[in-house]
Known about the structure:
Strand content: 15-25%
Low-confidence stretches: 175-181, 183-191
Largest sheet: 5 strands, mixed
Strand order of the largest sheet: 6-5-4-7-8
Number of helices: 13
Distance between the termini: 79 Å
Bound molecules: zinc ion
Radius of gyration: 25 Å
CATH architecture of the largest domain: 2-Layer Sandwich
Structural class: alpha/beta
Number of strands: 8
CATH class of the largest domain: Alpha Beta
Amino acid sequence: MNLVDIIREVQKLDDMSQQRLLSYLQNALEHTINGKEPLLTEIAERKSERGFSCPHCHNANAVRFGKYQTTVGTKTVIRQRYKCKDCSKTFTDLTNTPLNRTRKLDKWLKFIECMIEGYSLRKSAELIGEITWVTLFYWRHKILSSLEQIPTEGFSGIVEMDETYFLYSEKGKRNITDREPRERGGTSDKRGISYDQVCVLVARDRQKITLSSVLGKGRIVKKRLDKKIGTLLSKDNILCTDSWRAFSSYAKEKKVEHYRFKSDGKIRVIKGIYHIQNVNNYHSRLKRWMNRFNGVASKYLEHYLAWFRFLETLGFSQSVKNIKGMLITSCLFPVQETNKALRKSTFHPISVTALEDLMN
Ligand SMILES: [Zn+2]
């Protein structure tokens, strides 16, 4: 069919269909003609919504410094480059974002879709095509390095808080020498809570503001607890926890009203509203979701917690709005980790000195 045929066919369409065709063509052609990409523009605008600053030195003294060209899918996109007058470094809207220097924006969008589904790297690589799962490993962790930085708002009212444990894992690390290798995601042979377990704290208020974070190996320690949650709590909060002593003494110290629930399950609710069922349900959903990964290296656990937190806010639904929203959000917090740094990272939960540890 040549162009004349196409025009002839278009003329046969009714008014409504011609209108729809027109808006389709306008949309499809706009980006090619302007060399613009609305998603990149939105990222740039959201990143600088509080004013413009240099990603290297954070001063607001930058000038335009030429343009650069990139391709997004089959489109050529022209973007602005800047130069900081203070530190003399150049940057673009995507410096320190996971998308830095990308030429594959459409693939990133597909990958985000896979992340919302919670697909494995291998399955994602198959679905996306042309990108190896090793590359996707870095994409995943760059996105999560950013999402991890989304601040938790302060809690209001009742806060349910409980800890859960994940088996310490060095999955992916070769030549583990200090102990026998274990089956992936296996169970610890030590009874009770041991140093083999990684403690994860989840605190959630009734507006679903959620903190989930790695507290370290072994039993819950008050000092670590305070480092994670101290600034989010006020005297107006009411804590609901299980009967761990660490929680009780912590609540007393913070002068916060406190309801305790023993693990025997005899009393589940006090006065009809105080309970820890929301946080316990959160634990179950988190564990069920984590199961798909067959055990996660503990050094990346914080990333997975951030991933799950974000998906909960999206309701796990992969609408166009959510996919774009997740990609934009992952460009709003600086990600400076190189691929090598991501690979070589180690398990390092919040630092508490050995002495502080002993005091608890
Ligand atoms: Zn600068």
